[in-house]
Amino acid sequence: xxxxxxxxIFLFDDVEVLDFAGPYEVFSVAGLRTxxxxxxxxxxxxxxxxxxxxxxxxIVPDFxxxxxxxxxxxxxxxxxxxxxxxxxxxxxxxMHNPVVIEWVQKQAKFAELTLSVCTGALILAQAGILEGLQxxxxxxxxxxxxxxxxxxxxxxxxxxxxxxxVILSAGVSAGIDMSYYVVSKLLGEALANEAAQYAQYDYWPxxxx
Length: 209
Prior knowledge:
With 209 residues, this protein is α/β, with parallel strands linked by helices. The protein has one domain (5-198): Class I glutamine amidotransferase (GATase) domain (Rossmann fold, 3-Layer(aba) Sandwich), CATH 3.40.50.880. The chain has seven helices and 13 strands. The chain has helices at residues 17-29, 91-94, 98-110, 120-126, 142-148, 174-187, 189-198, and strands at 5-11, 40-46, 51-52, 58-59, 63-64, 73-76, 80-82, 88-90, 113-116, 134-135, 153-154, 160-162, 166-169. The protein is globular, with a radius of gyration of 16 Å. The relative contact order is 0.17. The mean pLDDT is 93.
């Protein structure tokens, strides 16, 4: 009998819209036309509400951190950088937020799969979750990821990296490819390909490291 897995997607101010919306779409619709029971229940979680994403998109998260159920799959998107005065925003700010880091560590201990898109990898690295693993991120943040720990093997020129329980993608649109790959990993390649075809999306099933 099939089961429905919860998928928690973390949001924060200045999050890159496609980083979370792409995976949200993939997991939300995968299997709906094929399986008798939906395979994924997707929800959003944030430290506050509402969230103002990149370019002014306002989002009301489903849960706040202190009320969010532990999820077997959770995803950290990216987006952010530094203001002209040097102050960080987006993922660059959240990677130094102790409340967020503690929540990420708790989720990672429980989760079947921990996922990141783009500079969400910086948050996972700062939380110590990428020690001894392969990782990737947006091409402009590779050096920042390397600087967090010498024990992370940072890969360039890949769409996503699968460490078994931790899977990371490169920037922005690569998170969609990673999400279809996760669908394939959990439900089979045929269903992932069917979902990508329905979305008219060119999915690279062999892009992992």
